[in-house]
Amino acid sequence: MKTAIILGATGLTGGVLLRNLLGDDRYGNIILFSRSPANVNHAKIEEHIIDLFKLEEHAEKFKADEVYCCIGTTKSKTPDNETYKKIDHGIPVTAAKLCEKNNIPCYLVVSAMGADGKNKIFYNRVKGKMEKHVLEFDIKKTYIFRPSLIAGDREEKRTGEKIAKYAMSFFKPLMIGFLKKYRSISPQEIATAMIFVANNGHRQTRIESDAIAELANAEKNSE
C-alpha cells in the first residue's frame, strides 16, 4: 500500500482529500504536515504539527509515494503581502524541493484558474510564479490543478465569495462550451480528480477547472 503526504488537510479541499484517502484501500499511511490538528482519529494518520514556513527542517519525515499540496490563503485572512507569498508560494515550492530531494515521484498541487506570473492581479501573479518555480524541480510527475471558484462552506466569513458562488450556481446551466471552465467546482470534485490523476496519470501538467470536473466524473463512473 502507498503512503501519501497532505499539506493543508485542515482546509476545505484538503479535508475532503484526507477523508477520501482514508477510505481508499490503496493507501496505508497518510502523513499530515499542518500548523493545527486535523482532529481526525484514524490508524492510517501520522500527524506532524509544525511551522510550515520551516518545512525543510522536517525533511527526514517528508517521505511518501505522493504529495498533495492544498495550501492556500486569502487577502482577508492574510492582508500582508509578504506573508501571503510565504504561504501561497513559499510552502508549495518548498514541498516541491523536498519531493526532489527525497525522490518522491508524484507531486500534486492546487493552484487557481488564471494563474499567471505576469498578471496584474496579485493573487493570480503569486499562483503563477508558484507554478513556474514548482515545475523547475526534477520530479517524475508534477500536476497542477487550476480550479475555478470552489463551492463549499468555509469557517471564515467571505461575503463577496458567497455572492459569487450564488451567482455562479444560478448561471451554471448556461455556462457551456469554452465557458465550462468558469463554472464553480466542489472540493469533492477537486479531491477526487487529484487522487484519480495520482493513480492514472494525465497528459497535461496544468489541469483546468473543466478538466478537473471531467476527471472527477471519470473516477466516479469507474467505481
In short:
The chain is an alpha/beta fold and 223 residues long.
Plain-language structure description:
With 223 residues, this protein is α/β, with parallel strands linked by helices. Helices cover 39% and strands 17% of the residues. The chain has a single domain (2-222), classed as NAD(P)-binding Rossmann-like Domain (Rossmann fold, 3-Layer(aba) Sandwich), CATH 3.40.50. The protein has 6 helices and 7 strands. It has a 7-stranded parallel beta sheet with strand order 3-2-1-4-5-6-7, sandwiched between helices. Helix 2 links the parallel strand 4 and strand 5 (106-110). It starts with a strand and ends with a helix. Residues 163-168 have low confidence and may be disordered.
Features:
39% helix; 223 residues; globular; Rossmann fold; alpha/beta; 6 helices
**Number of beta-strand segments:** 7
- How many helices? 6
| CATH evolutionary superfamily | NAD(P)-binding Rossmann-like Domain
Shape: globular
Order of strands, main sheet, comes to 3-2-1-4-5-6-7
Protein topology:
Elements: E1 2-7, H1 12-22, E2 27-34, E3 45-49, E4 66-69, H2 81-101, E5 106-110, H3 122-134, E6 141-146, H4 159-171, H5 187-200, E7 206-208, H6 209-222
Parallel strand pairs: 1-2, 1-4, 2-3, 4-5, 5-6, 6-7
